[in-house]
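Lab notebook: predicted structure, single chain.

Context: the supervisor wants predicted structures on file for every construct in the current expression panel, including those that have not yet been purified. This is the next one on the list. No modifications to the sequence; it matches the entry in the shared construct table.
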Amino acid sequence: MANPKYSIIPAGAVTDRSLEPRDLQVLCLLGRHTDDYGWCRRSQVKMAAELGCGRATVQRALERLVDAGWMQMKRRDLGEGDDASRQPSASYAYRVLLDQDEPGGGCPPAGTPDAPPDSPDSAPLGVPIDEHPGAHPERAPGAHTYAGTKNDPLERPLLERERERAREEKAEHEAVARFLAAFETRWPTAAVDDRQRTAYAAAALAASQREAALAGIAGFLAEQKRLQRKHVPAGWKYLEERRWELLPAARPEAQVLAAHPPGSEAARAILQLHEVAQLGDFARRVYRSPDGGVNWRGELTPRLLAMANAPPAAQWVALDHQQAAAWDRYLADHVTVATRRRIAEGAKAPWPWPPRKDGTVYADGDGGAAANESEPLVQEESR
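Prediction complete. Output recorded below exactly as produced.
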């Protein structure tokens, strides 16, 4: 049969926990190619090709099946009375032990695939048929006592890890579903948001982050109202950008909001800082007070206040790669806007190098030594 639809195997083998998964697979493959008496003469090479494994793997599975008593092996190139010891290079016929015995016993000779066995007294390798539970339907499946090899039970560590991973994935999926149900009841734009994108954003968060996201909704909406924002962002955007982490209450280092008068050193420094970060419009819109001053929560360090003495934008210099990296680290320590773009080569800044920790800046008279001196200080600060 070119494409058999069925595989005939003994029912007891299905519940034999001494068999490995590959053993049962090989037994099923033999059951696809047996004759009416259970004999199969398929080569191990062909069986290995069908199962997508090595020949040695098939050979070990066959030996375990024989030792377990679920099949017999007989050398096809030996006559009666010859040594029937197993050899890897020999040609074998395999008999799946079914509930129906053949009239004479033995193995069909080569060249006559459907012929009755030719040797009633042959001694195939394995357990005699009348001692095997698979050949006797009156014996309950699983009653076979197996002590032939040291195979572990079918519950293998790999399968157990796969089951544990499946349980964890199911629990995670349920936790995300519960979070989405709670989130959508609290977020104002949930009815018009992209629910699939919201689900993706929620699945990317850890459990602690999802809890913080729910707890931060009220504070975020209050901050939106305080800033007089007309539109609430989509829920997936709130989750993807982790907006709750930008709230003042979520930043331990955040200080009390302080108002700096128009034209003060602090106000000029803060606005110039955001000009370098290419966030000038954002700073003027968010930090400007009604009287033209600046409201700021950050610490006013000498490095930050040095920006108050920055020259006009027309006199700013273009940065090379190393200088741009130094400025980017400087801005990362002072600008908390999550959407800030990275300072790249060619960007403009008041000086080639950012201010030092003591507030001093690079000057033309310092030459290359001052530039080299500034960079390690910035790196030390970033650490």
